[in-house]
Amino acid sequence: MYREVKIGDKKVPMLSMASCDIYYERIFNEDPLRIQVTAGDDGATAVQLFMKMGFVMAKFAELKSREKMRELNEDDYLDWLDQFDRADYQEALADVADVYNGQKQEKSTPKKEEDQ
Questions:
Q1: What's the pTM value of the predicted model, to 2 decimals?
Q2: How confident is residue 116, by pLDDT bands cut at 50, 70 and 90?
Q3: Distance, CA of 89 to CA of 26 (rounded, Å)
Q4: Longest CA–CA separation in the chain, Å
């Protein structure tokens, strides 16, 4: 799923593909799927997950290259974060999560059942 996420006054292109989880794991040495399963209702863990996943998806949209994605590291993440105000990025995390989960969302609205 491709979408632009507004972070402060910037529109940031983000691309969520199935491979994002693998790139995330390579960059941060953490399994994002395991984090989601074990986090439960831990809001802080979800915030950290989607802050990092926002970076992965933004870089995926920008670079469009496996080779360049493999070169990314945590320092690149910190450099990328520095372009945003903390509050602006926090406010955008729901949209980041929507992009990440977008491939799982229904594309159509179910028909309303009529009384019989």
A1: 0.83
A2: very low
A3: 23
A4: 61
